[in-house]
Design goal:
Uridine Diphospho-n-acetylenolpyruvylglucosamine Reductase, domain 3; Uridine Diphospho-n-acetylenolpyruvylglucosamine Reductase, domain 2; alpha+beta
């Protein structure tokens, strides 16, 4: 790939205006990192406002073989928005309009820079509902959600981002503007390019418009916190609830390691023998919710249930959620460096995975804190360390390799929400065999033969399955 020149910069200024082309050290630094805290400096930061401007910029990059990558809020956990080859960072936050909310056909048309929570608020004002709710929804953008196929606590009932994307406008790596899908639920004309681009981490093109499916807003919701004597009971409770023909909106869990972190914090009162807990939320018609929660208590009572607390109003519900939301801040006391993984296993195998994580933690003497989405088996594994300690990096690498190998052995995946980016590149071959990887690489080569679109992501140049490396988050 080529280096950016002053002539290229001048061409960019002509496309978007000089005020939207940034080359100061401050601007470059602020777009050189994401939540991984790794850092790669871009050569220029450009803020386009229209699809046509994006296309013109990509055509310039393609003509001169310049690396280019799209960026939203930069909140990803795997380095997907890092300019590892330098080049042009295309920040899409100026493209932040909700173009349409169609209440008759239950769709929204948005630009990629719309913040997820702002769309949710806008559609709820007209009685509609956009379910995907990543933890970063207050600042992450819908373009980033599409790039990573974001999830969230409500996935157990409502699914992930790809289940709501009906169509896209995409600028391909040669600068062409294409349209995938459309405004209808049914559409089987040609290949399903929409699903190809969702979750592609900006490596196949740049999304500039998104058509989203909406739902009617649920009339009401109720929240319950259930504590258990062990993780097996909590995991069996999840399967028992679903077998009982109740699909909660959320089924969040914390294991003993996470409970230990929050026990004793102000406003958090958990039974002394509590070794696992579930936060269960149901939604629908108000009259149905209390009977549903009472039925859930009946179903899980024999499974080591210690206590079931049902919130009577929004304030009490928020107090129950405070238990779960206190985990991440509490991790700071365990170590300055966090290795944040998002493995997923079949939900019935969560206890096996938790026991394996406990064994790895004990064997390598590393704090490992686990919580996540029990309804879909998505476990957020947090390895908390101080990398300044001698030999710590090697111990962490060994732990992560063991975690991912165990995940695959249990029929799971190394990433349920965060994507591959840079951080999980060394592990991709744990899960995908050579023929499968070859097909994926061929798709990338077909759409991006010069390799300019978000280069260096997903596919490692060399896969080392013996001592893979990853990156930490410094707290």
């Amino acid at each position: 790939m080529n280096q950016l020149t002053e002539a290229h910069l001048e061409a960019l200024r002509e496309i978007v205006g000089a005020e939207h082309v940034a080359t100061s050290r401050t601007d470059l630094l602020s777009h050189s990192f994401d939540a991984t805290q790794r850092q790669f400096m871009p050569n220029v930061v450009v803020h386009p406002h229209t699809t046509e401007e994006v296309a013109a910029i990509v055509q310039l990059a393609a003509c001169h073989c310049l690396p280019i990558l799209p960026r939203g809020a930069g909140s990803g956990f795997t380095g997907g928005a890092l300019p590892v080859r330098g080049g042009i960072v295309l920040v899409l936050t100026r493209m932040n309009r909700i173009l349409e909310i169609d209440s008759d056909n239950l769709i929204a048309v948005v630009e990629p820079g719309v913040v997820t929570a702002r769309l949710q608020e806008a559609v709820e004002r007209v009685g509609l509902f956009y379910p995907p709710d990543p933890a970063s929804k207050e600042f992450s953008t819908l373009g980033g959600n599409v790039a990573e196929c974001a999830g969230g606590p409500r996935c157990v009932k409502y699914g992930v981002t790809r289940d709501y994307v009906l169509g896209l406008t995409v600028v391909t790596p040669d600068g062409a503007i294409i349209h995938t899908g459309g405004r209808t639920i049914k559409n089987v004309v040609g290949y399903d390019l929409t699903r190809l681009f969702v979750g592609s981490e900006g490596t196949l093109g740049i999304v500039t418009k998104i058509i989203l499916r909406l739902l009617p807003k649920p009339a009401s919701k109720r929240t319950m916190l259930a504590t258990f004597a062990d993780i097996d009971g909590a995991a069996e409770a999840v399967s028992t609830i679903i077998r009982g023909k109740i699909i909660p909106t959320t089924l969040e869990f914390m294991d003993a390691s996470a409970i230990k972190c929050v026990r004793g914090l102000p406003g958090i009162d958990l039974p002394e023998n509590c070794q696992a807990l579930l936060i269960i939320e149901v939604d629908g018609e108000a009259a149905q919710l209390t009977p549903q929660l009472n039925r859930i208590v009946e179903l899980i009572q024999p499974l080591g249930l210690l206590q079931a607390s049902i919130a009577r109003d929004a304030d009490e519900a928020e107090a129950l959620w405070r238990v779960r939301r206190s985990v991440s801040p509490s991790l700071r006391k365990l170590g300055p460096n966090k290795f944040n993984e998002d493995i997923v296993v079949p939900r019935a195998r969560v206890p096996e995975m938790i026991r394996a994580l406990d064994d790895i933690s004990s064997r390598l003497d590393l704090p490992i804190i686990n919580f996540g989405h029990a309804g879909d088996g998505n476990i957020h594994v947090n390895v908390m360390v101080d990398l300044r300690e001698p030999g710590m990096e090697a111990r962490v690498q060994e732990a992560l390799a063991d975690i991912f190998r165990t995940t695959i052995a249990l029929g799971g995946s190394v990433s349920g929400e965060h994507g591959i980016g840079l951080a999980k590149q060394p592990y991709i071959a744990f899960e995908l065999d050579s023929p499968t990887l070859a097909v994926m690489r061929s798709i990338k080569a077909a759409l991006d033969p010069q390799g300019i679109m978000n280069p260096g992501k997903i596919f490692p140049e060399k896969v080392d399955t013996t001592h893979p490396a990853t990156e930490s988050v410094s707290l």
